[in-house]
């Protein structure tokens, strides 16, 4: 049995290696390495998902939100400093706006603490709502003129000019912080609620990044983001990308090793116990919600780091490029096809699915052109002008189909999780 | 008085309209949740699909509406509802029933429903493109301007045909659903199954039939909501995207598994949205001189581009303070 699985895994990996080689041969090695770098960033994100779904059974439907936070943080912390803004009056005005925000938070916190003075609930609740509304309007009206002035005079506040690794690290921390609040609210409830809440939070993060022009330049996008390794201008495309690939590969190896150790250790056993039988592990005295929160935050940290790596590699931060539903489920396909709970399977799935995803575009266009050419030739059929953009929607359909088929026919994925049996 | 008319047009009427849409969607979600015990994410796409069925039928028979004096898409609504219900039943047969038969966890069904969402979205965009269309092909949208019998008010209250039809449809649908659930044998079987599926099965209720009926009701309500909304605004493939979060928020606010709660939740979310993007400065402007602070030009709680955050924060607040919803939901 064990032997069979090994040959199957080996065969799958060989097939993947061959397809990557073919990609390199046909599309050129610069393009091939680019695909590999992007796939490696997706692999980090997918590892984040596999610990949420595979280790703990948590459904995160808002992956792109956390990925976008990572990208945003990479942009904000590493982009060169905008001297024009920092030497102008707006810098201190913005500071005052943030002080107002801090003041509002303190006041609201104080109203919440009225509970300790045994003020009855019937007074506290209306008071809290009124304070919230007033504080909110006060803060919003404090920010509005400053941010407008920044946008009209300086474009945006610029970055902090820090080293790239700081941006990636902070990206992970920010994503984890958001995840903490969401998880804190939703993890005690049925798992469906987490799905709905994460879906919503991804939308909101995207709306915020898109509309906060003073912070992110919105639809104007920010580029070029600095790289952690010498760029293409200095040492050539292939070398630069290969260096970048080695950075992400080292990251994956580290994360992989740590996750593997955690999975095999007592913590991993406890997580699996909670996933497979929540009731009995709660009866054994495990704090189910706390453990789930841990794993949810950890997974989102990885998503943030992966997202930061992706944005840095692309060199551009474009809030509109994050499509919450479609890209989120691309990552879901990577995980459930590769094998949830199996780290090797997840990395395999990430590279495999991403290569297919990238290749499907030229293949689909080729098929389309053939179809419209033949249609015109044989039936005098005039293809609609937006035929190509429409037909690319077939990819969305295919992702959906793959998800439903894998769930039904191969729920454990290509590399099933190997649960160690102790007899 | 003009300010008040502005308030009625922008808050009362549009809140009631969008609230009815959310309510129709949320009732379907809550029914599916109480019978099949999973959050059906593809529901908003069923709404879009229903609207597209109505669009096809309108394009096929554009002359029927003007002959009857109603929008053609509305005349075609029963057919579109039937087609969507049929689609919903077959989607269940193809994608959810095999998973249920394997006895998977509910969250796997949620994931499958997201897979179905993507498939429906891909199909709709593949065949219809991404542009927006009008459901009025040969007829025009009737707009009623009601003059307010007060002095000082020279702006009329504006209400359109689809808005009136929507409110009428909602009333009829709710009464019909109420009678169905309380009087008919099948409706009682549904309620029994939502209370305790095992007990329902051993007492001889045909659970498969109940499941089918649930999909029929949810599918046809979704089609009606989608069609009526696109009649009022326009038909876009992105429709489902804007609806997904609010209808879930409405179902949870009302208490999951509680059809009347979903109705109330829909209106709560609808009015909350319109109230929060409403510019309160308009109402305060007549009292400009008595105010102790300078009136800003825009005093909306939420800028329109952040409208989507409103249902989300209501959802979070409900989850924190009262996870069972306003009306105690059964299952959690």
From TrEMBL, chain B:
One Pfam family this sequence matches: BPD_transp_2
Domain of life: Bacteria
Any one annotated GO CC term: plasma membrane
Alphabetized UniProt keyword annotations: Amino-acid transport, Cell inner membrane, Cell membrane, Membrane, Transmembrane, Transmembrane helix, Transport
Main location: membrane
Membrane topology, from the record: Multi-pass membrane protein
GO molecular function, one term: L-valine transmembrane transporter activity
Transmembrane segments: 12-34, 46-64, 70-91, 103-124, 164-181, 210-233, 239-256, 263-284, 304-321
CDD domains linked to this entry: TM_PBP1_LivH_like
One biological process term in Gene Ontology: D-alanine transmembrane transport
Family indicated by similarity: Belongs to the binding-protein-dependent transport system permease family. LivHM subfamily.
Protein name as catalogued: LIV-I protein H
Organism of derivation: Nitrincola nitratireducens
Gene: livH_1
């Amino acid at each position: 049995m064990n032997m069979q699985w090994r040959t199957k895994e080996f065969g799958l990996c060989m097939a993947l290696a061959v397809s990557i080689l073919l990609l390199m041969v046909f599309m050129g090695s610069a393009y091939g390495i680019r695909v590999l770098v992007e796939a490696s960033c997706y692999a980090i994100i997918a590892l984040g998902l596999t610990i949420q779904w595979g280790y703990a059974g948590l459904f995160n439907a808002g992956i792109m939100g956390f990925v976008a936070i990572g990208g945003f943080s990479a942009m904000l912390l590493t982009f060169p400093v905008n001297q024009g803004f920092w030497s102008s009056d707006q810098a201190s005005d913005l500071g005052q706006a943030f002080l107002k925000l801090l003041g509002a938070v303190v006041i609201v916190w104080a109203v919440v603490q009225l509970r300790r003075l045994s003020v009855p609930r019937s007074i506290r609740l209306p008071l809290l709502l009124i304070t919230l509304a007033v504080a909110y309007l006060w803060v919003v009206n404090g920010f509005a003129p400053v941010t407008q002035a920044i946008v009209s005079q300086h474009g945006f506040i610029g970055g902090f000019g820090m080293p790239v690794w700081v941006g990636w690290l902070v990206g992970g921390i920010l994503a984890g912080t958001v995840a903490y609040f969401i998880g804190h609210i939703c993890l005690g409830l049925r798992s469906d609620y987490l799905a709905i809440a994460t879906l919503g939070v991804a939308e909101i993060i995207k709306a915020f990044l898109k509309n906060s022009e003073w912070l992110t330049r919105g639809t104007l996008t920010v580029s070029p983001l600095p790289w952690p390794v010498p760029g293409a201008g200095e040492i050539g495309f292939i070398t630069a990308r290969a260096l970048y690939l080695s950075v992400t590969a080292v990251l994956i190896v580290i994360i992989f090793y740590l996750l593997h150790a955690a999975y095999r250790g007592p913590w991993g056993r406890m997580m699996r116990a909670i996933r497979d039988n929540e009731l009995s592990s709660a009866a054994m005295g495990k704090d189910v919600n706390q453990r789930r929160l841990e794993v949810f935050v950890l997974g989102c940290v990885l998503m943030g780091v992966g997202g930061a790596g992706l944005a840095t590699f692309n060199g551009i931060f474009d809030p509109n490029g994050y499509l919450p539903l479609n890209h989120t489920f691309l990552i879901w396909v990577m995980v459930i096809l590769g094998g949830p709970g199996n780290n090797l399977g997840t990395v395999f799935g990430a590279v495999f699915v991403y290569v297919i995803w990238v290749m499907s575009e030229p293949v689909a266009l080729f098929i389309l052109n053939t179809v419209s050419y033949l249609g015109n030739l044989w039936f005098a059929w005039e293809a609609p002008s937006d035929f190509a953009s429409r037909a690319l929607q077939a990819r969305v359909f295919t992702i959906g189909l793959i998800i439903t088929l894998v769930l039904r026919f191969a729920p454990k994925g290509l590399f099933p999780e190997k649960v160690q049996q102790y007899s | 008085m003009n300010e008040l008319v502005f308030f009625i047009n922008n808050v009362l009427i549009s809140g009631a309209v969008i609230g009815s849409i959310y309510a129709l969607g949320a009732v379907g979600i809550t029914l599916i949740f109480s019978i099949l015990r999973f959050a059906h994410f593809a529901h908003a796409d069923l709404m879009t699909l229903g609207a597209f069925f109505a669009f096809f039928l309108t394009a096929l028979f554009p002359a029927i509406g003007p002959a009857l004096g109603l929008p053609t898409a509305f005349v075609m609504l029963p057919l579109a509802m039937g087609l969507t219900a049929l689609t919903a039943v077959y989607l269940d047969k193809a994608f959810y029933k095999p998973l249920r038969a394997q006895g998977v966890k509910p969250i796997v069904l949620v994931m499958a429903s997201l897979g179905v969402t993507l498939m429906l979205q891909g199909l709709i965009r593949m065949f219809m493109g991404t542009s927006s269309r009008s459901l009025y092909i040969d007829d025009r949208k009737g707009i009623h301007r009601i003059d307010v019998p007060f002095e000082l008010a020279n702006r009329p209250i504006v209400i359109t045909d689809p808005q009136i039809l929507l409110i009428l449809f909602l009333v009829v649908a709710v009464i019909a659903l109420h009678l169905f659930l309380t009087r008919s044998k099948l409706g009682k079987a549904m309620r029994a199954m939502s209370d305790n599926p095992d007990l329902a099965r051993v007492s001889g209720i045909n659970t498969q039939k109940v499941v089918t009926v649930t999909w029929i009701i949810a599918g046809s309500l979704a089609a009606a909501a989608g069609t009526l909304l696109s009649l009022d605004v326009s038909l876009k493939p992105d429709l489902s995207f804007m609806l997904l979060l609010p209808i879930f928020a409405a179902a949870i606010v009302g208490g999951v598994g509680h059809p009347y709660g979903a109705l109330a939740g829909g209106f709560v979310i609808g009015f909350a949205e319109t109230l929060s993007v409403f510019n309160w400065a308009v109402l305060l402007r007549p009292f400009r001189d008595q105010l102790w602070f300078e009136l800003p030009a825009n005093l909306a709680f939420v800028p329109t581009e952040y409208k989507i955050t409103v249902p989300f924060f209501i959802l979070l607040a409900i989850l924190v303070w009262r996870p069972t919803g306003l009306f105690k939901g059964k299952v959690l």
